[in-house]
Amino acid sequence: MLNHSLPNMKGIMLATLAASGIAYGDMALAGDVPAGGSRTIDGQTLPENWTVQVDGTLNVVNGSRIGSVDATHAYINLYASSVLAPTGQFGIQASNGSRVDIRDATVSATASGSRGVVLAGTGSGVGAGEASLATINNSTIEGAAYGASLSANSVLDVAGSQVTGTAANGMGIGLFSGTATFRDGSVVTGQANGAQIMTLTVPGVPDGGRTLILDNATLTGVTGSGVLVQRRNASSTSTATISLRNGASVSGGNGTAFELGLGAQATIDVDASHVLGDLKVATGSSATMALRNGSTMQGVMTGDIAATVADTATTWNVTGDSDVSSLTLNGGAINFAARGEDHSNLLVRGDFAGTGGSVTLNTVMNEGGPLSAQATDRLLVQGNVTTTGTTYINIAASGAGANTDTNGNDRPDANEGISLVQVGGHFAKRCVRPGPWFGQLRWLQARPDRLCARGERSLAERAAG
């Protein structure tokens, strides 16, 4: 079993090709590090593809350039140098407990189907079932299909670097089993999706799940989604844990930050970070989405989603019709974006829970009446409102205003007024209240706890069938 620490570079003898007995063009010798052996390429250009055998070490330093590297239960150290993979090769492939350290370097594998850095493993041979590890600092990693990919419970730690999938269908990162962390200003870009997460198990290798951590990092899908979680085939499922921290952001060129396909499940925690796009969950899949500690989301949520908007500095800006399985509001704000003449509904199919917060709706102040005559955003709760505090409904008003007491009896009757919040289940008194200025409207003064007009079937009831 390999020691988890990398070799001490101070103890490595940096040798020239002549001194080490390696002649340029001697393909067999120059391209192979024997089991337990060590080779150092110092300031040289050797376009060969290198193989590092069990317990071997390959050091590439001081502006050197080589072809691809394939290591099994071995070490690769790439410092201030580059790997330029030829057609049909990955840049660096490390398996069965290998250790890769890349600093101030470039790995490029841009031929069709190629990958920049690949961490993998098998269930047989030396190092069977052991996780491979790569640390990448201040470097550039490029691959046509994937900038980097990891399976077999591998670990990837990237700091201050750029990882890019360059082909039209390229992914910045492919996460099949293991943990990938991007931090310290790292940028992950896929020309298609920023990240593809999919369960891929290897016989004899434990599956440690799929964890993606963005810590002060940016992830972008240029034409597709930021993060795509999908199953491998119709009989499989995929699970993912995704964490955004310290100003991280996720976006997709198709408007979707997180996309869960069929057979997918994801836990998404957004801590002091930003979601620039939608969360879309396919039928039969599910997600939990927690926005907290000053996070923002600009988009819609649709599908089986347990959504939480926590603390007063956190905001979900709803940009269109949204549909979630449950909603917890713990002091946060839900603001509906103005859409001109169009308006949005937020449908909560289950309960609306938490300590309360604020919801801002865009409303045209007309005479109201039948739902078809109203022009407003709405919060629709099919379940119960179980909040322990008050949720304040703030109105971004437009229009000249009109008398909503259409029958002139000075009372809020059925089919009068403008419906803002509808609850299909039970709710406590004063769980939902208008914002401070809203009490000027006469019908709300008369019935301060009822924001839904009675007498016609509500939108929440209609959505329930």
Q: In the CATH hierarchy, what is the architecture of the largest domain at level 2?
A: 3 Solenoid
| Number of separate domains | 2
Query: What is the makeup of the main sheet?
Result: 38 strands, parallel
Roughly what is the average pLDDT, rounded to an integer?
86
Give the overall shape: elongated
Q: What's the CATH topology name of the largest domain?
A: Pectate Lyase C-like
Count of β-strands: 42
List the uncertain runs: 1-30, 437-462
What level of helicity do the residues show? under 10%
Number of helices: 4
Rg over alpha carbons: 28 Å
CATH class of the largest domain: Mainly Beta
What's a quick, concise take on this entry?
The protein is mainly beta and 465 residues long. The protein contains 4 helices and 42 strands. The strands form 2 sheets. The chain has a 38-stranded parallel beta sheet that branches. Strands 35-37-39-41 form a 4-stranded parallel beta sheet.
Structure description:
It is a single chain. The protein is mostly beta strands. It folds into two domains: 30-299, 3 Solenoid (Pectate Lyase C-like), CATH 2.160.20; 324-465, no CATH class. The chain is 4% helix and 46% strand. It is built from four helices and 42 strands. The chain has a 38-stranded parallel sheet that branches. Strands 35-37-39-41 form a four-stranded parallel sheet. The longest helix is centred in the C-terminal third of the chain and has 6 residues, at 459-464. The radius of gyration is 28 Å and the shape is elongated. The relative contact order is 0.06. Residues 1-30 and 437-462 have low confidence and may be disordered.
